[in-house]
TrEMBL record:
Name the UniProt record assigns to this protein: SAM-dependent methyltransferase
SUPFAM superfamilies named in the record: S-adenosyl-L-methionine-dependent methyltransferases
Molecular function GO terms recorded: rRNA (guanine-N2-)-methyltransferase activity
Signal peptide residues on this chain, from the entry's feature table: none
Amino acid sequence: MTCGTVSAVVTTVRRGQKFAAANRALAARTAAQLGIPNVPRGSDSLDEMRTVYGVDAVLVARRGLLTAVTAEGELFFHPGMAHLRIKTLRSGQGDHLVHALGLTEGMRVLDCTLGTGADAIIESFAVGAAGAVTALEANPIIAAVIGDGLAHATGDNYEMHAAMRRISVHAADALDYLRAQADRSYDAVYFDPMFRCPVHESAGMNALRVLADGHALTAETIAEARRVACRRVVMKERRGSGEFARLGFTDLTGGRYSRIAYGVMEL
């Protein structure tokens, strides 16, 4: 029942005949992918199921998409502000992440911290169909939930969904993955590590926080990123964070009044 450092089972919702077949298929596929039990949904609540099976999270196939239910909240795919950021980019205005990474059509981006997937969507939109975005997530549960959403979530914004579908998600530790890559195999490498002091709290972010890898970035990881990247290595952190200086990011950019900043290493 253990997936990475978090124990889990997968099940379906009790009701919802419209998506019943899709939910069953998704639960079976997720169980096989993560190597966790696919358990029947009886009359127990999800809280009770965590107790009965002795797990940290219950993955639920709901309306054909995955939700990870923990004691701290529910994690499910939502593009967040990505659609508004894409609208802003289309209007000719800038985006701080796109500026920090120096993104243009056709670039290859390695996003080492997928998280909720919103930044990866912006990266994919910015580099277009001729480019490529590879997104890593150390926790397999987060990778499964967000990766499934990027691949299957629907809505009314074609350009955003096209960008979502182009993202290649891998459940992998960033340092391990970087070590296996050839020199200069990506144009830009991006890190958005879990902040020690959250910028804001929500049930979804609390669930992400408890599942995510909370380890600080290491100098070795940044060194490998510098080897793999052709143009830039970028890290997102709280403005004023000591992580920038510790890891060698001296060039900072971002919104003047924003609580976050981007450290940029030009290569």
